[in-house]
Design a protein that fits this description.
About 55% of the residues lie in helices and about 20% in strands. By secondary structure, it is α+β, with helices and mostly antiparallel strands.
């Protein structure tokens, strides 16, 4: 198995790379801020964040602030470890 085979397929999308990169350096970030930082649509963020949540890489918190719904994201310990491993393999790949 080569190094390229060790890259995590869950992080192949540029949107998922962006989500994970933002969450690695922020405790919690809300939907609107994430969408703005990545310059993507609501649906695009919702589908990618859902896939990352299903893989247990991020935690999604839905709550009401006043009468408005608020969705926030946080990286999980599993997600942090998997993303760091993915980045390590990317670094090894760049050294070839």
């Amino acid at each position: 198995m080569g190094i390229i085979d060790k890259l995590n397929k869950d992080f192949e999308s540029r949107v998922r790379l962006g989500i994970m990169s933002i969450l690695i350096v922020n405790e919690w970030i809300d939907f609107t801020e994430m969408k703005t930082l990545l310059n993507i649509t609501d649906g695009n963020l919702a589908s990618h964040s859902s896939a990352l949540e299903k893989a247990q890489y991020i935690e999604v918190k839905k709550e009401f602030v006043g009468k408005k719904p608020k969705t926030s994201y946080k990286v999980t310990d599993i997600g942090r470890a998997a993303f760091k491993e993915h980045l390590n393999y990317l670094e090894k790949l760049m050294k070839f």
